[in-house]
Amino acid sequence: MTALKVLYIGGTGRTGSTMVDQLLGQFPDYFSGGEMAFFWSRGIGAGAICACGAPVRDCPVWHHAIASVTDDPDGLAARLVARRQRFRWPHVFAMWWPGFSGRRLREIAELPTTAEALYRDVATTQDSEVFIDSSKEPHYSYILREGSELDLRFLHLVRDPRAVGRSWQRRRAEAGLTTGEMMEQRSSPVASAYYLFSNIVSEIFWRSRTDRYAFLRYEDFVADPARILIAIGEFAGAPIDPSTVLDGASFEIGELHTSWGNPSRVGRTSITIRQDDAWRTELSRRDMVLLTALNLPLLLHYGYPIRPSGRRRTRLRSSRLRRADLGQR
Ligand SMILES: [Zn+2]
Asked: What residues flank ion ligand 1 with Cβ within 5 A?
């Protein structure tokens, strides 16, 4: 059995990943699964709505996939949510303790093996070559990589941390749930801590796997989506012809079964890709200074200007990392 290709969109939240995911999901070889790290907690446990409009457990695609791994979805969900609690972000710091990772991975082995079976069933019924998991969390990608036979490719998606910080301030309803819940909001210091942690850990986990790691700035994607799509297709292992989906900078959203993620995954029919620079005027002076100062190491590392009106530059990096940079190819 050949390993199923999984394009893992990794890094941190609010980087435009939902749109990239929705666009990729329009190509017949690609299936947009959503943030699969939350499949059992949100998709099943909290009764989330699939992008097709049905509750995840009733959606024909997911219903079939769930039935292929269990006849007791609630029991399995409770067990896997508990397993996931055993390897969350604080545990990343314990990984340098000898023996910790191996022991923990053995304890939670059911999590990645179930994920693999679930992704496989979907890829088979939907006749897809690449399963897109947009979980972002680097530690979940590590669990999948070490605990399954999936052929994981990590697309490290980043965005200017000030745009990310502004997005965390917005108050929006959690459209994927029927509970009236609001999306999480984060202050600039908390958003920065999350940004630094997720991006640094992404590089630590993946930088040595040069053929399985690609770097992409959201801003480079927006500047030339067709070129980047071709590069993503080469990286993910299933060629993409942008002209079949993209009409200039716009695309129609066909049937999708994204199980969990940003609420914008539900209910949209078309999208126009454009730079969203509203953060430059919307951020308060205090937040602009905080987000710039706290994220300074990565701001420079990723080639973002210190002054918000400045120009992005090519990352000055080793040739190895430049090759991984989809924006610079
Ligand atoms: Zn669905």
From this structure: 50, 52, 59, 257
